Amino acid sequence: MEESRIAQPIGTTLDRFIKSNQDQFAFASGELSQLLRDIALASKVVNREVNKAGLIDIMGSMGTANMGGDQQQKLDVLANIRFSRALMKGGEACALISEESESYLDLNNHGKYVIAIDPLDGSSNIDVNVSIGTIFSIYRRKSAPGTPIVQEDILQRGDEQVAAGYILYGSSTMLVYTTGHGVNGFTYEPTLGEYFLSHPDMKQPEEGKIFSVNEGAWNSFSQPVKDFLTHCKDNQYTGRYIGSLVADFHRNLLKGGIYMYPATAKDPNGKLRLMYECNALAFVAEQAGGKASDGLCRILEIQPESLHQRTPFYVGSRLMVMKAERYNQ
Ligand code: P6P
Prior knowledge:
Helix content is 31%, strand content 24%.
C-alpha cells in the first residue's frame, strides 16, 4: 500500500504558516511569530480550562464587575491572566488593553506592539456551555521602544492594526487571524497541542440571508433599524443569534449574514467595545471581503477617545451592511 494511504499528510501548523508568510508582515521578521505564538499558547491554556469548566470550580461569577459593569466570571479573570502573562513572557508587547482592566497594563517597555484584547467574550454563556471567544488586535506602538507609553500608542484607529483575529472555543477550537493579507483559519488538535490550517484564504459571501440581532430590544431600536429587520423578514431571511459575538460573527463569515448590535435605549452607543471587540472583527471582516460599520461610518476609521468606548456595530456580508447603512441614512 503506497505511503500516502498509510500516513495522511499532517497539514500546516500555525507556526509553520506564520513563518512561511513572514514577509507579509510589515515589520521585523519573527516579531509577529512571537506575538501570535504567545496568543496561541494562552488560547490553548484557556481552551483547556473552558473545556473542563464544568468539572473544576471555575464556573460562575467572581462577584466582581469589569470596567463596563459586566459581572466578571471566574474564567474571564483567568483568561485575562493567561493572556497577559503569555504576552509579558513573550516580550514583544509593551502594553495590553483589556476589557478586564480599567487602564492599559504595562508589559515590556522595549516591546514594539500594543495589544487590545477581550480575553473571553460572551462569558455569560460559560455556565450554559455555549461557544465563547477571545478577540485580539495588534498595533505597532508610535513611541520609541524603551520610552514611556503615550496616549498615541494606546488610542489608535482600527485602520492602524497590523494584525487581528479571534479564537472561537466551540465544537472545535479555531484561531482565525489576518495581517492585512487575507484571512486564514486554524483548527486546534488538542491531542497534538497544535493549530492546523483548516480554512485557508477565508472569504465572506458578499450577500447573505442570516441576520443576527437581539430582537428582545426591538422596542428600543430606531425606526430605520426596525425597517431593515422587517426587510430581512419580508425576504424570509433566517434569524440566528447565539448571544456570543465571536460565534455569530464566525458563522456569518462562513455562510454570509449580518451581525448587528445597534444603539438602543439601554445602550445609546451600542453595547460592544470599539478597541477590543469591534476593531479586530472589522479588520477580519474587511480582509475577507466583508464590511463593518457603526450604522453609518466605517468602524476602522473611528478615532478612539477612550479605552472602553462603545460603538453601534454592523458587521458581515458587504451588501447586507451597505443595505443596513442605507436604511440608517
Ligand atoms: P445581549 C456578550 O456579552 C456580548 O458582548 C457579545 O458576545 C454578544 O453578541 C452580546 O454581548 C450579547 O448581548 O444584549 O444581546 O445579551
